[in-house]
Every structure is written in C-alpha cells, then in structure tokens.
Amino acid sequence: MGIDSLVGLRSLSTAISLLVFPSVYWLCLELFESAIVGWVTIALMAVSPLQIFLARDARQYGLWMVTILVSSAALLRAIRRENLASWAIYAITLAIGLYTHLFTVLIAISHGIYVIFRHNFRFNKSLVNYLLGTSVGIFIFLPWLFVVITHISTAQQLTSWLSSINIDNPFDLIAIFLTRFSRIFFDVNLGSENTWDNKFNLESKNISYSIISAIFSLNLVLYIGYCIVKECTKSISLFLVLLGGIPALCLLLPDLIGGDSLYYFSVSVAFISQHPNCCCLCFKFPSLF
User: How would you write the pLDDT of the chain (289 residues) with one tens digit per residue?
Assistant: First the structure.
C-alpha cells in the first residue's frame, strides 16, 4: 500500500472518529438529561489516549465506536418516545453497527437485557418494539451475513492473525487488560512495540510501571462501579453496567480459558467499556463542584 493510500485511510478514520463527540453527547442527553455531563464527557474523550490512538488507526474501530454510541442513544430515545420513527432509527443504527463489526450483536444483547430488566420482565410494548426493531436490523444485515457464511474460509484466513498470540497464564491476561484499560484515561508509551518479559507485546519494558498501572486501573474500575451504584438511578446504572459488562464478559471469558486473541480482546473491551465509564465519571464529576 502506498503512502498516499495509507494517509487517505488514516484521514478517513480520523474524520469518522470526530463523530464520536456528537454521538456521546446525544447519549449523555438521553441517559442523564444533562448538557453539562455531555460536555464534560466530550472533554474527557477528546484527551483520551485511546481515542487519539484509534482516530489514527486505519481500521473500522472508530466507526464501530460511533455506531455503539448512536445505537445506544437511539434505543433510549425509542423507549422514551415509543413511536415508529424512533424504533426505525434504532433498527438502522443497529444494522450499520452489524455491518461495521459482527461483535455488535453483543451490544444488541445488552440492549435487550436492559429492556427486559427495565420493565421488570413484563412482555410490554417496549419489549415488542425492541424485538421488532432488532429483527429489522438483523434482516438488513442478512446480505452481508450470507457473504460471510459463503466465504467463511476466506474470513478465517484473514483473521488468523488474531490467534497468533497465546498466553497460558490467565493472570497475565488480566494484568494486560488492566494496564490497557488505564490507557482510556492516561498513557505513557501507548505506541511502543517493545516486549515485556520476552513473552508478549506490551507497551513498556518497565515492569514497575505495568504493576502500578494495573493496580491503579483495578481501583479505578472499583471506584467507577461504586459511583454507578451509589450516585446513579437504577435505570442509568443498569444501562451502564449492561452496556459495558455484557460485551466485556463475553470477550474476557474465552480469552481467560483459551488465552488467544489478546490484542483483539484488549482493544475490543476498551472500545465497548470506554463510553459508559466516561459517562459515569462525568455524572460524578459535576457533583464535586
């Protein structure tokens, strides 16, 4: 690939990543009904090392982040308004997400669980509309699903690099996850390709930094969970926990068992978890003034 082509791809990725800001603002308006939360979330994401890194990456992950945010906001709007247009928007955003990344199905599952718990397991209008909207989104996705199934061997060949790294020790996987999780908010050497412990690629040779970062990240995760439960309403905390927790667990458990796809697992979890975590912190942040 020539330099001009690579620059073009990175420029497109950067342009698409800018859509994250209005998308997360909309999600905050739907979730918290507060403009200040939206603006503070935008400020946090604008200086996030992970967000900056993804904006320069010539892959589809920036667009995937946008579709996650937009489909989540569209779901909340559809539940609030309960009209055909709102659920049609949700179905379209879900379909775009599925075309962008197959793991969007995990987001759809978390949305479905949220609707069920929100209405106390009652089979009501919101649940029916969600099922219809999701079905329409999947129906729109069927042509590409057919292509993937009929060319499954090619898909496996193109994604074979995901299983090229194997780590047998689950504690190593957890440590790497926590270290990379911290890079949502700060980073010292995200772009380095140095090796650590001669076993796998990590962002630093400095073991002390990795341990400190992992400890900090663990405490940060616990504090975010505490803020969600204590400060947010039941509906908000349920949405944030499900949106970040369901996809993360679905990606984390296979890696802990098989030890494969480390890079893909770490980045995917960070994508999905970044937005609800930022929203939670921003919900807490204004109350400190």
Answer: 555 566 666 777 788 888 989 998 999 899 888 788 888 888 878 887 777 777 777 777 788 888 989 999 999 999 999 999 999 999 999 999 999 988 889 899 999 999 999 988 888 889 999 999 999 999 999 999 898 888 888 776 766 655 555 666 666 666 666 666 667 766 655 444 443 334 444 444 455 555 676 677 677 777 777 777 777 778 888 888 888 778 777 777 766 665 554 444 444 445 555 555 555 555 555 554 4
Task: Establish how many alpha carbons lie within 13 A of residue 24's alpha carbon, considering only the half-sphere containing its beta carbon.
Answer: 32
For 242, half-sphere exposure in the C-beta direction (CA atoms, 13 angstrom radius) is 20
CA–CA distance, 26 with 241 (Å, rounded to integer): 19
For residues 26 and 32, give the distance between their C-alpha atoms in angstroms, rounded to a whole number.
10
Closest among 102, 245, 255 to 172, alpha carbons compared: 255
Question: Alpha helix locations (H) across 33-124?
Answer: 35-46, 49-56, 61-81, 84-100, 104-118
Q: Tell me the CA distances in angstroms from 11 to 47, 168, 267, one per residue in order.
A: 19, 38, 21
Give the phi and the psi of residue 203 in degrees, each rounded to 5.
-90, 0
Give me 75's structure tokens: 């779901």
DSSP lists the bridge partners of residue 175 as none
Nearest by Cα to 74 from 84, 63, 87, 83: 87
122: left (phi over 0), alpha (psi -120 to 50) or beta: beta
In Å, the largest CA–CA distance within the chain is 57
**DSSP summary character for residue 190:** T
Report how far apart, in Å, the C-alpha atoms of 15 and of each of 19, 27, 193, 274 are. Answer: 7, 20, 26, 19
